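Q: What does the assembled structure look like for these inputs?
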Amino acid sequence: MLLIACPNCGPRAQAEFTFERPLASIVTPTETLPDLIHKLFTRENPRGPSWELWRHTYGCAGWLKVHRDTHNHQISAVVRVDTETPS
Amino acid sequence: MQRYSALSLLRGGLNGQKSWQRAWRDPAPKSHYDVIIIGGGGHGLATAYYLAKVHGIRNVAVLERSWIGGGNTGRNTTIVRSNYRQPALHNLFEFSLKLWEGMSDDLNYNVMFSQRGAMFLGHSDSDMIRLAERGDAMRAAGIDAEFLTMDQLRKKLPLLDLSDRARYPIVGALNQPRGGTARHDAVAWGYARAADALGVDVIQNCEVLGIDRVGGRVTGVQTTRGPIGADRVGICVAGNSGQVAAMADLRLPIESHLLQAFVSEPVKPMIDMVIMSQSIHAYVSQSDKGEIVMGGDPDLYPTYSQRGRPDRIEGVAGQCIALFPALSRLRMLRSWAGTTDMSFDGSPIIGATPVEGLYLNGGWCYGGFKATPASGWTYAHTLAKGEPHALNAPFSLNRFETGATIDETGAGPMPHHR
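A:
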């Protein structure tokens, strides 16, 4: 199980968190159709580092951006959702 | 091919088991094949077998990066059923079930297919309405489905907690008597042996590193054992479809997730059917060795690690113990995990890609094992004819763009919400 360092609550077990989607797959109201298809369906699905949207559902309930490796599970950054991150 | 029979067993017993030949060859790759299948799991091997047997295309190679059947073919919970509601799905899986029924004879290999019945439990009135609709849809398509009352359940499964104070109260079930389990390793070995006998090269320890294209058309693959040319290439690597398709600059409507399963120590027969609950998502059966095989929800976040989270095991074990309280006495023997291709409507993809001569079979979510023969049959048809079989035509790669998704659970593009 992952240990995720919530910026509000400190390190907590993954069981308290829910994964939402890759950060690059957040749909905005102004998408073009090809962009929409890419974000909803043909996602990058990386085998390696990825920025993701998570929520500390059973903790502070805050939305978080998590930089996580999908192969070795290393987490290199957890920040609040209003923090600017490289895309 | 040395045929297996009661007589050959007897002969083996009399001569110290020295008369057995190897089950399939270990050929070096040729420089060119009519068709290359990437991935030596059950689906890839079945594809090669039906290419040779049904379509007469025998200049075929199956390239496997490690050993055959070492991926998801050996990591599933071996359940076979065709109890889907949507026609595109139950037609495909029922065709598959019919092939399962004749598979051991066809392959001359005992895949230990056991039609012990596979049932969905109902926990509420709304569950029963949903199951009734599903059963009606199946029977309208000529598939066996039967409602089980509490009295029938009590007779069939005396260890199931059917009391009023159960953690997950049970009010009935929808059973498919022809459903059951099979020995998953035997499926890979049986197809490999039968395909090999028809001239197919099954090449293990041969990882594909690149897909060669000239002018938008596939010409072959680069591998750890050198370049191999091909007229047509079929990707069949569910779990890693995105990684292999990326070699041809394709992005797939697939996210890679992780599904766990685990078994208890072996015990005498206590659960002689496959029991599933869609409401709590757990499923339980007993293997022929006597182990109780359990599984449930995936880990609900994308990963390629093949390492599961322990709280999922705890949760699923808790659900199974709630259904069968006697399971609390058993010790767990081992657990494992597999990487699954989660497609964005929960249904597989079998068909052409935008690259000419390159085809894709993947996106099986966590329901690929039962489809093994139909997947191979329809994929072989697609690779041989260059166009889909009627059964896999709905499962095209472009259905996500056109909106023709086949979403049995109605969850939308949310692999982790299924």
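The mean pLDDT of chain B is 96.
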